[in-house]
Amino acid sequence: MAMDTKIEIIKDCLIDAKKLRIAGEIIKEGGLVAFPTETVYGLGADALNADASKKIYEAKGRPCDNPLIVHIAEFSDLEKISGNVPPAARKLSDAFWPGPLTIIIEKNEKVPYETTGGMNTVAVRMPDHPIALALIRESGGYIAAPSANTSGRPSPTLAEHVAEDMHGKIPMILDGGAVGIGIESTIVDLTEEIPMILRPGYITQDMLEKVIGEVRMDPGIIASDSLRKPKAPGMKYKHYAPKADLVLIDGEEGRVIEKINELIAAAISEDKRVGVICTDESRSGYQAGQVISIGARNDEDAIAQHLYKILREFDDMEVDLIYSESFATPRMGQAIMNRLLKAAGHQVITV
Q: How many CB atoms lie within 10 A of CB 1?
């Protein structure tokens, strides 16, 4: 049965104590609240309540072996849910928390397997957003929160995106406006002998290595998904996907434009509606289809910030096919391409 979903607007992140108290009570009582973080909107529940975590999987239609990230507001709370906090965790938290970094450590008996997708490890982060931190404190200190979207769809970067997917399924959405970063946190597994990145994000391998020494990149990140049990959210499944079929075109810019124009013409001849994701610099090269620029090619932050919003815009336009340029930018290129490859189900044409 559908429930009434209340949307509470919190302007300019000015914390409204009454709204946050009500949201905190919903979580304490085992309910769900969607809230903004600096990366994407999260769908929060009490991380230490097995039934509450189950509600997240139900609302999202998410596979139950896909672990949830536990959000905390104090480093000391990390030590209460793990019997083994490695020194690297303290170093990384000093360097990057609050911020878009998730660490994986061993869990203790306080964290139910429903939260960790059946794993003996737990993924934890401290978000860099005043509304998120206030909500975590109001609700008891531990919020399990994946992105607040239907599983497999583009992650929400606006409260309206959350409402599209979650209206009638959850009691409350805290609307804090547009998020800052726009792609999910970097996930690093500290239970390996050499720490391993399981999901690339804003915090890069280079940044991590400056703090803790050698860090490996999981070889499955850019390759097609493996069949092994996922240690991190989204490792195993097609993710972030628009309703239309998405194909990436990779290569030298001029040839990419030429190839996409050729593909558009072929699709239009079959009466298909086509979307194109390009940059400000290449936009004028496309004469047909619904063309949306993701931003200037050298503005990596804008590319990351606009990606999911654009995929949702194409859903609203009801296009049948989307062709996207690839964005292998110097700093965040790996994170951006990781999201695009997953959204495309690894369909790439190299020219």
A: 3
Question: Residue 253, exposed/middle/buried by CB under 10 A (0-12, 13-18, 19+)?
Answer: middle
Locus of tokens 């979903």: 5
Cβ neighbors of 262 (< 8 A, separation 6 or more) are none
Paired sense of beta strands 274-278 and 216-217, if any: unpaired
Taken in order 202, 204, 210, 216, the sign of the CA dihedral is: positive
Q: What is the DSSP letter of 12?
A: G
Dihedrals φ, ψ of 54, to 5°? -60, -35
The token pair that represents 333 in the structure block: 């290129």
Q: Are 159 and 41 in contact (CB under 8 A)?
A: yes
Rounded to an integer, what is the distance from CA 60 to the centroid of its chain? 13
Task: Extract the tokens encoding 39.
Answer: 């990366």
Taken as a whole, the chain contains a residue count of 351
CA angle 260, 267, 324 (to 5 degrees): 35
Query: 46 CB contacts (<8 Å, ≥6 apart)?
Result: 27, 28, 30, 52, 53, 139, 140, 142, 143, 144
Strands (E), the chain: 6-9, 33-36, 41-46, 69-71, 101-106, 121-125, 143-144, 172-175, 186-189, 196-199, 216-217, 245-250, 274-278, 290-293, 321-325, 348-350
Q: Quick: pLDDT tens for 151-191.
A: 889 999 999 999 999 999 999 999 999 999 999 999 999 99
Tell whether pTM > 0.85: yes
* pLDDT tens readout for residues 204-235: 999 999 999 999 998 877 554 444 455 555 55
Q: Which residue has the tokens 């960790």?
A: 116
Cα(60)–Cα(162) distance, integer angstroms: 11
